[in-house]
Amino acid sequence: MKSNLAPLGPKADKDTVRRHNLSLVLRAVRDEGEAGEATRAGVAGRVGLTRAAVSSLVEQLIDSGFLTESGKTFSGQAGRPGTALKVARTGPAGLGVEINIDYVSVCVVDLAGTGRVRQTEHLDNRGAPPGEVLARAAGIAARTLESAAEQELRPVGAALALPGLVSGGSVRQAPNLGWNQVPAEELFAGALAGLRPGRSVLPVSSENEANLAALAELWFGGLDKARSFLYLTGEIGVGGALVLDGELLRGAHGFAGEIGHVVVDPAGPQCRCGSRGCLEQYAGQAALLRAAGIDEGATGPVAELERRARAGDARAVGAVAEAGRMLGRVLSGAVNLIDPEAVVLGGIYRGLMPWLAPPADEELTDRVVSGLWSAGSGRLRASSVAGDAARGAAALVMQDVLADPVAYAGRNEPEVAR
Amino acid sequence: MKSNLAPLGPKADKDTVRRHNLSLVLRAVRDEGEAGEATRAGVAGRVGLTRAAVSSLVEQLIDSGFLTESGKTFSGQAGRPGTALKVARTGPAGLGVEINIDYVSVCVVDLAGTGRVRQTEHLDNRGAPPGEVLARAAGIAARTLESAAEQELRPVGAALALPGLVSGGSVRQAPNLGWNQVPAEELFAGALAGLRPGRSVLPVSSENEANLAALAELWFGGLDKARSFLYLTGEIGVGGALVLDGELLRGAHGFAGEIGHVVVDPAGPQCRCGSRGCLEQYAGQAALLRAAGIDEGATGPVAELERRARAGDARAVGAVAEAGRMLGRVLSGAVNLIDPEAVVLGGIYRGLMPWLAPPADEELTDRVVSGLWSAGSGRLRASSVAGDAARGAAALVMQDVLADPVAYAGRNEPEVAR
């Protein structure tokens, strides 16, 4: 049975408790700020500390540049007028870098999680040497960092979003990029440092891109409080991620969520992963375009697919519907296994929902054993605009800042070349 | 982002803290008792409380009948000789009742989780009125309770293990039993109360049987510390459960783990769940026996299947190998999605492992994308003998006792008819 042998009553020292409480207050202001306006009294009620304790913590957070106070005062429910608190729009920020098959997207978010700078370039990364792709991404990141500096934002770390199996800083396998055992963090950090001589070196982390898109959906997507969902993103590959009770399921080796390689037909087409008949071969971007008769090399092929489907082109509509059926079939197995609150479709699926969702929903209704799935119930839904991997990556960096602001307080001065 | 707004420093009152610490000490003695002998000093070290505090808690647990002290003394590593502590072999106990398609098994476990009384009857429950099946189960339970009373064990609650979708005390759907919307807890509790006039009424809970078998495996199975695993149990149906980081995944509606209804072939045979081509139609007991040419109505048909496979009967070996391939194919999808440490096969699969496991392992090796699955690596394993649903159900009842022994201290007198 579950053994939790820690006695009640933490033996934490005063400094640890204060750092923890600074984080609580900072997060409370951010969360309250989303709903309306945060005040010291409101935060005190929310976190369960005294008004006096919260005031002292707020002063420290203002002094360190994490919070700002608006001049505006207003009458609280009770007591004297309060001052509205906000998380700072300058200072610590996170840099997210999504490297996908046919584009690189870089994003900087602030303490509130708002995307402040975004730069996206469409590039064909397939078959290019990994070092070259990562150097290109570092170039885009360096330019994005300059724009961020102009807004007085200072990224404290970078996170890479990568379309493959990521662990220990490396890409173990990214079949659609043709990458195997690529030390992505090291290559990116080196390239970025080379482009910014004399500047402080950004710590770099990395994560699977579907995982980060799912986190962005969880954090910013307005999922009607769905805390457990399966996330699928249609790209060149089909990425997947599982969020259970508000936490990303990483799996025993960090490789959970690989729904793109669930078998649809064991005798089906060869997949780049080495297996046959994977979902990706039926519902990935290439399969979809091929079935619709659209050249993958054409300009904006997915927009063209959407255009044709909207115009009622039978071949396009049929291709998307068939992909939807295959998605639904695989999803029904996943739903039977996981029983999530919702299934969220992102990437190219977002724009294809009108033709993709009904057949997928129908398969789910037929095959989910609980009988709880009914077509049009809203359990199958499109991801929000907010759900993108670059923003999720940038927000992941900010998790560390929010968890222990004191650790980042000293780094708050304007950046200067040394 | 995850908001944990509870401040450090619990505001728990003294009574709450003491009850919590009594639970800590009781669980520590039980866990230490598994490894060797528990002493006050050892427990103090383990739970992080002072020796004096632990002594006082131990006295209360002895007085209430939860712990016993063996007369035997021995020299500790340091200090004066200690007395060995053990959890009591009498007193509070849990009653587990597994109602499956072709048998009912009832088990009583003590505080240590040891199965102390077991009664199993082979019955064909298919198509029988649910009330009748539950009344039969209550009869077996009543007889088991008499045997438990002779051992001075006093079950404080009963848990039902049921082969279907269970929530809110009812079976929503158990296709192989033919049950729909059956208020199982109520029917069982009523029948049991009727058989024990004047006795105290046992609180009854219920859970999916594969979930409970998986918990038994987690708690008693010696899984080499695997805390995340997918559990499959071959019965008339194919049940499944997911344990992630030592916790059962119940899902948004309590229906997670239904791997038996993952689609193998959308055009395959009709399944009792209403869908087609589910795993159960390829790897369930009926499908296996049919493919092996064994009459399902024969005596001990699964033992016969094992016997024939052991004797090298080509049809039997082929049937089991084909079921293994289908299992492996579905499992590969689940492993790609979840990335568990291990996959554990229970029920009829345990005895069929020599012929079932190699083809399943081969499919997994071919289809798990991380390349981390290799045949014979031990990630695919048979469940231990301990992994049965009735014991899991009984142990689930004991969780409440271990979590708050004080709540059960008053019920420790010998049971008398009133």
From TrEMBL, chains A, B:
Ordered alphabetically, the record's keywords are: Kinase, Transferase
Matching entries from CDD domains are given as: ASKHA_ATPase_ROK_BsXylR-like (cd24076)
Q: Name one GO molecular function term.
A: kinase activity
Annotated family? Belongs to the ROK (NagC/XylR) family.
Protein name per its UniProtKB record: Putative NBD/HSP70 family sugar kinase
